[in-house]
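Figure 2 data, in text form.
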Amino acid sequence: MTPFHIVVCGSLVPDPLQTLEPTLGPEGPGLKNEMMLPSVLDPWAGHALYEAASLATKHPESRVWLVSLGPKARLQQLMMSIAQKAKFELVAIDSSASGFIDAQSVARTLATAIDEIDGLDKNRLLLFGGCASASRDAGVTVQMVGELLGLTDQFLAVDELEARDDGSLRVLERIEGGKYLASTVRGAPAVVAWATGKLPEPPNNPQVGMQNMRTILPALQKAKAAIPNRNSIHYQEVAIPQQKRETRVVKDMSVDEIAREIADWIRG
């Protein structure tokens, strides 16, 4: 079987159970008390990481790197929780994890870090990431990283990837109408942006965690600082969307009348 070099782009996001209040500060928009908010691994990036680890176990001599961009101290806290989930090598970038940073700036930073990975064979490269993000939901970051690395075979919103014995890849990609587009590519290199995948979150494995921490801590110490470009996008205001509810109770209306009234309300 062909061994792969799998690079997963994924970082921390604020715990969705917390109340997130945007605020506009002197350095641009952010979240109120952002550094104090508990963090979790981005859900879509988590799917990508677990799929990458599963694929690597089926193909001996494969390697998995997790490239994470975020504040070094918070990345260390995050790694303490996910190091036991899957085997990977960390590439840490000390930078802001704010969701208000331009995706293009993030993509350039990630592509530069991937280019500098020691021992990475781009002929075997599978670039994994989420098709979206809980913070930077531009939906284009992974695609732009792939373009910057010269990877033109790209698959978005993937739920299943099968690596065959001849090195080819069969990909099931979400399209409209709840259907899948089945594609076959000759093999690596390729970009795969994951939707939900097929695998559940793996249980904690203390042995895997101990192996990972031997490389995670040195990687965090060597994390290079990156200053994102905040000048490419200008925000005039950031605020929580206002909730508005208008309720009427009407009997004996036809479906056409209901639809017409809803359409008129939207136009208004």
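Caption note: The longest strand covers residues 154-163.
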